[in-house]
Amino acid sequence: MGAEVVVNGLTKSFGRSTVWRDVSLTIPQGELSVIIGPSGTGKTVFLKSLIGLIKPELGQIIVDGTDVCSCNERQLYKVRKLFGVMFQDGALFGSMNLYDNIAFPLREHTHKTEAEIKRIVAEKLDMVGLTGEDKKYPGEISGGMKKRVGLARGLVLDPQIILCDEPDSGLDPVRTALLAQLLVDVNAQIDATIVTVTHNIEMTRTMPDNIGMLFRGELVMFGPREVLLTSEDPVITQFVNGKKEGPIGMSEEKDAALEAKAAGAFSGNGIAGDWDGPVHRPLAFVPQLETSPGLPRRAAADRRKERVMHTLHTLPPNAQRAILDSLSPEERAMADRIIRQQSGPAPAAPVGGVPETRTPTFRPF
């Protein structure tokens, strides 16, 4: 099973420029999580911080009991072995064929025999759908294939956590959809924690268990996919709809009036407060991707369902309804009982319903 990642009070600056401040969240073990946000909000910096390539000024990143931000080099090396990375451009060695590219981490970091390496490389090539392509060179394959080779290389050390930095970059919509399905299928097979940074809204809508958003140096929210995908927060609805009207501008620098309007977007629990400009409607909610036929059901899906059921009463009404609509009648009845037990006495509501008088607040995990 993948490892949990706990982030507490993370703050990072470059000179006078603050990338983000006081970011706290828990990335659940074995689940698919996506981080979105406008360009320049520090999403890639966040991934690099998780693996210890960048040191934040403040905060903790706890991975398998070790604080990546304060540990020594020996401890950091041990923690990094838990990670696999899928780079944005594949980061393949042009002078090596695909087999040697994928085998490279095994030869560098293990003492496995060539026979063992051959077996592992073949297994990972099959997992990403590239069986028989191992003799080709990076210059002979498409961008989509390079992404899959990069993923296979990230898998050879059997990581507990996989970081994917804009894996959809440079891909057409069809290949992006196929890549999203591949990440779901990989998760089903190895049960690793997968953290993806992306700008692609379709991938964000269909793939993850959890979604977070960074904007103007803050974590707007992080939690079950239903929270962000049903949110009416103006920052979120503007971004997911790709509209020019809203708190997000061409650059991070805003004029004083817009700055004042946007300031309320990050008070309290992170939901926009005093923005009085246009608010776009949430996109139509779509079901999460299932694993491909012939593969096992994702163990993370069952763990997530149990976890979300017990935090359901803390989520916004729109997210509650989306979650309840995805449940079987028996599960909805159970969820309704949990809501009543956790929230205390409340006005009567239909089985699976959410009393209109209750207004739960979102709390990041």
Parts with pLDDT < 50 across at least 5 consecutive residues: 253-259, 262-273, 346-365
Q: Please compute the radius of gyration using only Cα atoms.
A: 21 Å
The string of secondary-structure elements, in order, is EEEHEEHEHHHEHEHEEHHHHHH
- Look at the structure and give the mean pLDDT: 85
- The CATH topology of the domain at 5-211 is given as Rossmann fold
The outline comes out as globular
Oligomer: single chain
Main sheet makeup: 6 strands, mixed
How are the strands of the largest sheet arranged? 6-7-8-3-9-10
| Distance linking N and C termini | 19 Å
Into which percentage range does the β-strand content fall?
A: 15-25%
CATH class of the domain at 5-211: Alpha Beta
The helix/strand class is: alpha/beta
Structural write-up:
This protein is an alpha/beta fold and 365 residues long. It has 13 helices and ten strands. The strands form two sheets. Strands 6-7-8-3-9-10 form a six-stranded mixed beta sheet. Strands 2-1-4-5 form a four-stranded antiparallel beta sheet, covered by helices on one side. The protein is globular, with a radius of gyration of 21 Å.
